[in-house]
Design a protein that fits this description.
354 residues; Rossmann fold; Glutathione S-transferase Yfyf (Class Pi), Chain A, domain 2; 2 domains; 11 helices; 24% strand
Length: 354
């Protein structure tokens, strides 16, 4: 999968930019606050219809109060064109000039993102760890999103019943069923990722990295959670919301059976996240038989240790195209690369600078 053209208008500090990236590695070099991360954010928005940095759409506008994103995609000589225009009123999304929903775009433009601070964000909240897992599954299983949409609708309806002291039986039974299917897919995905993580034990001097899900008896999940609902119904009616289900489950990251959140060093936390992204790439290819696009933000902060350099090289070997931002031109990667420089939202090639 390749992005052959990227066009960005009025996105953060980028007024107008047209970029024809190369295959393999594309480095975006520049000082802080010049637009490096904004550039990656725009690519990410084209795939998922949202930012990885903010939930407030107004933060993405510049003084024109709208932005426009366009890209041409080549996936094994099958071509797609994406157009997204966003203002304060609406988000208009087109695929090959036809109006579509963002999930239709996500199915065509597959992106995996790595940014260094993500690990510390993840360790703060079980909901964010669940979200990481769910986004990873959604990347290769587009129907997984429908399960979540149905679950959220069901959860809202059951909560209304609890607040108004109405019969919640129908919504409870549907909630249990949807929760079971979501949990089943999460556990299956974790099993696959853990196998890939374990294959790298020797590479990390016998450090075993592993993801753990809440301890559950999946075979008897529906029976057990139904019994738990019977026990908690009075408390749920009192507080007015649902206390059980997949939206309350916890996901934890471990090294040698020790929770990274409490005992992992900063280096081990970075290693886990890099290794997770690598495992995600491998698992994606196993399912789809082609490679997604990789975004890496701020590689400058990741090249202190030999192990992290090797991990980044492993990441780059398992994608056909990557976009990497950095303060300086990296010297440790031998793979043929394209270098561009960004200054105040304007992208320049080596030839333009010369």
């Amino acid at each position: 999968m390749l992005l052959e053209k990227i066009k960005i208008i009025n996105f953060r500090n980028i007024d107008s930019l047209v970029y024809y990236p190369g295959k393999n590695v594309n480095y975006i070099i520049g000082d802080n606050a010049q637009g490096k991360t904004n550039f990656l954010e725009a690519i990410y928005f084209m795939a998922y219809g949202k930012s990885f940095r903010t939930n407030k759409i107004n933060n993405l506008f510049n003084n024109k109060k709208y932005f426009y994103l366009n890209s041409d995609i080549n996936n094994d000589n099958v071509f797609y064109s994406i157009d997204i225009k966003v203002n304060n009123i609406e988000k208009k999304i087109k695929l090959n000039n036809k109006l579509k929903k963002i999930k239709d775009i996500s199915e065509k433009l597959n992106i995996i993102l790595y940014f260094p601070s993500e690990i510390n964000i993840l360790l703060k909240s079980p909901s964010l760890r669940r979200n990481l897992l769910d986004k990873s599954i959604f990347l290769h299983d587009i129907k997984y999103l429908d399960l979540h949409i149905d679950y959220i609708k069901c959860l809202k309806n059951r909560n209304i019943c609890l607040k108004e002291n109405k019969d919640d039986y129908i919504w409870r039974e549907k909630l249990i069923d949807l929760s079971y299917h979501i949990v089943k897919k999460r556990i299956s995905y974790i099993d696959k990722i853990n196998k890939i993580l374990f294959q790298n034990v020797d590479f990390f001097e016998n450090e075993i990295y592993k993801i753990k899900y809440k301890n559950l008896d999946l075979d008897n999940y529906k029976i057990n959670i139904s019994k738990e609902f019977d026990k908690t119904i009075k408390h749920e009616q009192k507080v007015g919301y649902t206390l059980l289900g997949q939206h309350t489950d916890n996901v934890t990251f471990h090294i040698n059976n020790t929770n990274i959140e409490n005992y992992g060093s900063e280096g081990q936390k970075k290693t886990f996240l890099l290794l997770y992204k690598y495992s995600q790439l491998i698992n994606f290819y196993n399912h789809k038989k082609f490679k997604p696009i990789l975004l890496i933000d701020d590689i400058s902060s990741e090249v202190d240790k030999k192990r992290e350099k090797l991990l980044i090289e492993k990441l780059l070997l398992n994608c056909d195209q990557s976009f990497i931002t950095s303060l300086n031109k990296p010297s440790f990667i031998n793979k043929k690369a394209n270098f561009f420089y960004i200054n105040n939202g304007r992208l320049m090639s080596n030839k333009e600078i010369a």
